[in-house]
Design goal:
Layout (H helix, E strand, L loop, with lengths): L1 H54 L2 H26 L3 H21 L1 H16 L7 E4 L2 E8 L3 E6 L4 E5 H6 L2 E3 L5 E11 L4 H12 L10 E8 L3 E11 L5 H17 L4
Antiparallel strand pairs: 1-2, 1-5, 2-3, 3-4, 6-8, 7-8
Membrane topology: Multi-pass membrane protein
Subcellular location: Cell membrane
Organism: Niastella soli
Length: about 260
């Protein structure tokens, strides 16, 4: 027993000597880590404000500012460990983080893809909340853009949550981007009719539709085979309001029908 106590005493004494020798390094390491901690908090606030001005999304700004905070904190931790001469510990931490990151990457491939796609959508802004879009077979108004999914409310009142990966990788039509949209109406008439009169009557009829300007109406003849003539009527309308296109198209079709019915 005396030998064991002597060995324990010697071991504790050696640790105490080592602690006294490392005490300046330990104090310096604590100070360095403390400085990095407060610096990371300060920089996180600045990054959050800058990203909020760019993206106008508190969610994405908070996420990236938190990631920035963690990175700065890890840098301070590694420097502190370096001051304590714990290089092996640093190597072990980096190796462990790499293995964990690789495993998580394989386990959450779809989640990661949706997250990255959400980041690109928020920053590149191919569409925004309130825009009328057509993607993945759904047409409606964008209600919400999150990091994982985007919510679209169709004109039938259905709320569709689409994964951001599906939106980012497939074609998307943003009807609100240009603010205007063209209505096309195809007509077929007998070749014996006075087409100039019909054209003028169609233009006069569309002039009564307040949403369609007279200088935005085009009447084009697209085909003729002797017996019949094919005609296309083009008119531009404002497409920035909800259900605007469907309602105005209805008005346009009714006016054209009233104008051409006597000639059919």
């Amino acid at each position: 027993m005396e030998k064991w106590f002597e060995l324990i005493k010697q071991k504790l004494a050696s640790w105490l000597v080592l602690l006294i020798k490392m005490l300046p390094n330990l104090i310096l390491a604590i100070l360095v880590f403390t400085v990095f901690f407060f610096m990371a908090k300060f920089l996180r606030k600045i990054v959050f404000r800058l990203l909020t001005r760019v993206s106008h999304k508190p969610t994405i700004s908070g996420l990236f500012s938190s990631i920035f905070f963690i990175v700065i904190l890890l840098v301070g931790l590694f420097i502190s460990l370096q001051l304590l001469h714990l290089e092996k510990t640093i190597a072990s931490l980096l190796a462990g983080a790499g293995i964990i990151g690789l495993a998580l990457g394989f386990a959450f491939q779809d989640l990661t893809a949706n997250f990255i796609s959400g980041v690109f959508i928020i920053f590149r802004k191919p569409f925004d909340v309130g825009n009328i879009v057509d993607t993945n077979g759904f047409t409606g108004i964008v209600e919400e853009i999150q990091l994982r999914s985007t919510t679209i409310r169709t004109f039938q009142g259905l709320h569709i949550m689409l994964p951001n990966k599906e939106i980012f990788q497939k074609p998307i039509t943003n009807y609100s981007l240009s603010g205007k949209r063209r209505i096309d109406v195809l007509l077929t008439f007998s070749g014996k009719l006075n087409l100039q009169v019909i054209e003028q009557q169609i233009k006069d009829a569309l002039a009564s539709v307040a949403e369609v300007k007279d200088d935005r109406v085009q009447v084009l003849f697209t085909d003729y085979n002797g017996d019949t003539v094919k005609m296309e009527v083009h008119c531009w309308i404002d497409n920035t309001i909800e259900m605007g296109f469907n309602n105005i198209r209805d008005k346009v079709l009714r006016q054209i029908h009233a104008a051409v019915t006597p000639h059919l």
